[in-house]
Specification:
Helix content: over 70%
CATH class of the largest domain: Mainly Alpha
Distance between the termini: 50 Å
Number of strands: 0
Shape: elongated
Oligomer: single chain
Strand content: under 5%
Order of helices and strands: HHHHHHHHHH
CATH topology of the largest domain: Tetracycline Repressor, domain 2
Largest sheet: none
Structural class: mainly alpha
Length: 198
């Protein structure tokens, strides 16, 4: 088994254990058992369970990475880039268990003033930058002054949607809410960047 496959196996096992045991009661031993590996194998990839939890959050927030690779190749049209952003957002918001886990882990890490909190903050900044970098090719407008602000609002709104999804308080059917969310941000971002060209 490749290293990347084993690491993914450990991540998925950790998610399963956290869902049943909760964050505080989850141990590296249980994660290893669920993954079918030794505790040493888990520690090969992660110093502690908090670092592993941080990686689960990163999986959730780095939705833009695949789209960035495609956009950077220059082979995608503006519409294709927006469609890929929409598809990635839709997939993220439809994963109810992962959304609940994302919010719970994020809250747990934010409440602790340690290196893991700093790492999560750094990864959020990277996600906002990457998302902002997508808005240039997607809109056809390069605007460094505003695209990162738009990206920050977009990522924050995604987390807000994750909270609502986790609590079951969407004001309409899930598919409709997600469709309108995507359409709203597409129109808002394109419109704002077009109105505020540098």
């Amino acid at each position: 088994m490749k290293n990347s496959e084993k690491k993914q196996q450990i991540l998925e096992a950790a998610m399963r254990v956290i869902r049943t045991q909760g964050i505080e009661k989850t141990t590296v031993r249980e994660i290893a058992s669920q993954a079918g590996v030794t505790t040493g194998a888990v520690y090969h990839y992660y110093k502690n369970k908090e670092e592993l939890f941080q990686d689960i959050i990163n999986e959730s927030i780095h939705f833009s990475q695949k789209v960035i690779i495609a956009a950077g190749s220059g082979e995608k049209t503006q519409q294709e880039i927006f469609n890929e952003i929409a598809d990635n957002v839709r997939r993220r918001l439809q994963k109810e268990d992962e959304q609940k886990l994302h919010i719970a882990l994020l809250g747990d890490l934010i409440s602790k003033n340690d290196q893991n909190k700093e790492r999560v903050a750094k990864n959020y900044k990277t996600t906002i930058k990457n998302t902002g970098d997508l808005f240039g090719p997607a809109s056809g407008i390069e605007n460094d002054k505003y695209k990162y602000l738009m990206a920050s609002f977009f990522v924050a709104a995604l987390d807000g949607m994750a909270i609502q999804r986790s609590l079951g308080v969407y004001p309409a059917k899930e598919d409709k809410v997600i469709d309108i969310f995507i359409e709203f941000f597409k129109e808002a971002i394109l419109g704002y960047l077009a109105e505020h060209k540098e």
